[in-house]
Amino acid sequence: MNFDNYLKDGKTWLNKLCAYLGIKDEQKAARIFRAVLHAIRDRIPTGEALHLGAQLPVLWKGVYYDGFTMHEPVRIRHEDEWLEFIRTKDSGAEEADFPTLDHAFYAFQDVMAFLRDHLSEGQYKQVAQAIHSDITVPA
Predict the structure, then answer these.
(1) Residue range(s) defining the domain that contains residue 102
(2) InterPro entries from the xrefs (predicted)?
(3) What sign does the CA torsion over 111, 60, 58, 46 have?
(4) Using the 8-state DSSP alphabet, how is residue 92 labeled?
């Protein structure tokens, strides 16, 4: 096990994510990424959630699987409900990171664009389709 490489890979993703989000605050970027990943994880079927987690760098896998349980996907049909759900995953920082639903919307769009560019094409499409057709997901 090469923990230095795990740290390097996780930090590389974080630096790239900051660029996608248009922010320099790595702690805020990490909280946003965690909130969106947890919302996605809890929204999609367990099998899809496991496949998504398998494509993350080791350090981000730990963040992603923190609090994970086998589950029925959370039923969310409308975009505002989805954005509120993302906000609830921000461990008490939702007012700082997502003060409005617009902030949550743009953060979700940026994280999905990041995932589109860092996951396999097939995995990204499966995740995007599993979220719901009424929720705007970057193609």
Answers:
(1) 26-131
(2) DUF2267 (IPR018727), DUF2267_sf (IPR038282)
(3) negative
(4) T
pTM above 0.85, yes or no: yes
- Look at residue 14 and tell me if it is in a domain: no
| Domain-located, residue 49 | yes
Query: What are the tens digits of pLDDT across the range 38-91?
Result: 999 999 999 999 999 999 999 999 999 999 988 899 998 889 999 999 999 998
How far is Cα 40 from Cα 31, in angstroms, rounded to an integer?
A: 14
pLDDT for residue 132 is more than 90: no
- Asked if residues 119 and 64 have their Cβ atoms less than 8 Å apart, the reply is no
Whichever domain contains 82, its CATH number is: 1.10.490.110
